[in-house]
Design goal:
Blueprint (H helix, E strand, L loop, with lengths): L13 H4 L9 E6 L4 E6 L10 H14 E4 L7 H12 L13 E4 L4 H7 L1 H7 L4 H4 L13 H16 L5 E6 L2 E15 L3 E7 L8 E6 L4 E4 L8 E8 L6
Parallel strand pairs: 3-4
Antiparallel strand pairs: 1-2, 5-6, 5-10, 6-7, 7-8, 8-9, 9-10
Length: 244
């Protein structure tokens, strides 16, 4: 198996290797200024494409590892693209294909452009919400996550990103379910106090997320956004081996 020690030929780029549409939220969240906690109510009308955060990060890396977009070729018909998408999402998300074995998508420059034009096809083809729940890596979040584990995780992620590997991470606060989410890391910078990671957050297709690791406390944190009140959380790297 190829792991984080193996480098894809190019770097994951937010503007070309992510989906143009987002995973929709079942709940509408609002930060209570008095308690600094999120208050939620169900979105009305309900979303039509929700619970797919892990579907989208897995699929984004499958496209990154196995697809080649060629805008110089003529645009194909719907049936052809449906078959090509099916081939991509059937491949291993943990490792890139051999050079020359990429699946060619004609008529588009990258996944971002393709997903903007073929949103309905990709939503249907990448998999249902059940794929976000039935992940063999989910077992890990039910066991204690120590500060030493988080320090080791940060130490593993940093060199992987410098080798152009793009880790998929699971963000948790188990047993609390205030966050249970997946992202792809694609860039990293060290600071005086720790490490700052740039991430593709499938809940926000417009901009990268910013995840930080503090070396003194050995803790990851994510700033406030529209579904998270902000603060400390735990990070597990997934899709990197048979058990995760």
């Amino acid at each position: 198996m190829i792991s984080a020690t193996a480098s894809p030929l190019r770097r994951f780029e937010f503007d070309r290797d992510t989906f143009a549409f987002a995973n929709e939220l079942v709940w509408e969240y609002r930060l209570d200024p008095a308690t600094q906690k999120m208050i939620s109510r169900k979105n009305n009308p309900p979303p039509t494409y929700a619970h797919r955060c892990f579907v989208l990060v897995r699929s984004a890396r499958q496209f990154f590892n196995h697809a080649w977009f060629n805008p110089s070729l003529s645009v194909a018909d719907e049936k052809t693209y449906r078959r090509l998408v099916r081939e991509v999402v059937s491949r291993n998300p943990r490792m890139p294909c051999a050079p020359g074995q990429e699946i060619v998508f004609p008529g588009y420059a990258n996944l971002r452009e393709f997903s903007a034009a073929r949103e309905r096809l990709l939503k249907a083809g990448c998999g249902g919400a059940w794929r976000s729940y039935v992940l063999r890596s989910h077992w890990r979040m039910v066991f204690p996550i120590s500060r030493a584990h988080q320090e080791l995780t940060a130490a593993r992620l940093l060199p992987a990103l410098r080798r152009n590997f793009s880790p998929i991470i699971h963000l948790v606060r188990f047993p609390s379910l205030t966050i249970n989410h997946g992202m792809i890391l694609f860039d990293v910078a060290e600071t005086a106090t720790g490490v700052v990671f740039s991430a593709y957050d499938p809940n926000d297709s417009a901009r990268p997320a910013r995840l930080t690791f503090d070396r003194a406390t050995k803790t990851f944190s994510l700033p406030q956004n529209r579904y998270w009140a902000g603060g400390e959380l735990n990070v597990i790297e997934i899709y990197r081996g048979w058990f995760l």
